[in-house]
Amino acid sequence: MRIRTLTATLLAMLGWIALPGVAQAGSASEGGGDGTSLVWSRFVDLDFSAARIVIGDSDGDDVTELTHSSDGVTDIDPQLSPDGRLVAFERDYPDGSADIVVVGSDGRGERVLDLGCDDPCALDVAPSWTPDGRHLIFTRVIGPFNQVGDSATSAVLWRTDLAGADVVRVSEPGIDGAFEDYHASFAPAGYMVFIRVRNGDIGPTVFRMNADGTGVRQLTPWSLAADLPFVSPASGGPSQDLVVFEAAPPGSTGLVATVPADCRPLASCARQVRNLTSPLLPSTDPFTRANFNPAWSPDGSHVVYVNYRFVGPTDSVRGDIWTMRWDGADKQALSTSPLFEFRPYWGVAA
Question: What is the C-alpha separation between 131 and 301, in angstroms, rounded?
Answer without folding.
Answer: 19
